[in-house]
Amino acid sequence: MSGVTLTDEFNLLVETFDYDLDDLLELTLNAAEASFLPLEEKEALVEYINDAYANLG
Prior knowledge:
It is a single chain. The chain is an all-alpha fold and 57 residues long. The protein has a domain at 20-56. It is built from three helices and no strands. The model has no long low-confidence stretch (mean pLDDT 96).
């Protein structure tokens, strides 16, 4: 394993480029939208992500 986590990568974005939660949400949603999941699963994932980020702020 490389020892790299998504949490660590997001922390680097925040520290290096002053990203905020809205920026991280946009990146995460873009990744979900670009996934190869079937449409129904992709929609469920986007909803899950939006709900999770709503609970953070």
